Amino acid sequence: MRRTSVETKALILAAARERFAADGYERATIRAIATDAGIDPAMVMRYFGNKEKLFAAAAEFDLRLPDLPADQAGPALVRHFLDRWEEDDGLRVLLRTGVTNEAAAERMRAIFAGQVGPTIVKLTGDPIQAPARAALVAAQLLGVALARYILAFPPAAEMSKDELVAWVGPSIQRYLTADEPG
């Protein structure tokens, strides 16, 4: 069966995301990713050049942040993140690898700065505080993701989305819209 180049590239990226999520950047190999995709390792190299470039492509992630209502931005953002974590392995790949690989950590920082930061500026009108607010939002949401999706801490892993939104949403709301402390 012949695939188009677009289909082959998508197959490789899907296998890479799964492999990077399971093994981390250091232990994942081009050979293992190719085996997972059911193709020759040379094809992976043809499309991506090397492991670093493959990882960069696999770690590309659009948070697809919606317009958030200012008075309910925290709960809406928590719900949105939970949905994104459950529909796409991209964030899981970044979280798993970001703790041991500087390129992955930088990619995660860039995603939150480049995508969450502007959303915060839009909500608050304050570009000066946006980076600090984005960092606090990232710490909270990534902590929830680590506990729920990577480490599977009970009861965080078993809580419903509604429960998590109820617990975490108010904290995120504070980070997003509360007056600066002090």
Explain this structure:
The chain is mainly α and 182 residues long. 73% of the residues lie in helices and 0% in strands. It has nine helices and no strands. The protein has helices at residues 5-27, 30-37, 41-48, 51-58, 73-87, 90-98, 102-124, 130-150, 161-177.
**Mean of the pLDDT scores?**
91
Structural class of the helices, strands and pairings?
Answer: mainly alpha
Into which percent range does the helicity of residues fall? over 70%
Strand content bin: under 5%
Determine the number of helices (DSSP H or I, runs of at least 4 residues). 9
Shape: elongated
Radius of gyration: 18 Å
Poorly predicted ranges: none
Q: Which H/E pattern describes the elements?
A: HHHHHHHHH
Major sheet characteristics: none
Total tally of structural domains: 2
Distance between the termini: 65 Å
List how many beta strands DSSP finds: 0
Structure described in brief:
The chain is built from nine helices and no strands. The protein is elongated and about 60 Å long.
Walk me through the topology.
Layout: H1 5-27, H2 30-37, H3 41-48, H4 51-58, H5 73-87, H6 90-98, H7 102-124, H8 130-150, H9 161-177
Keywords:
Arc Repressor Mutant, subunit A, 182 residues, 2 domains, mainly alpha
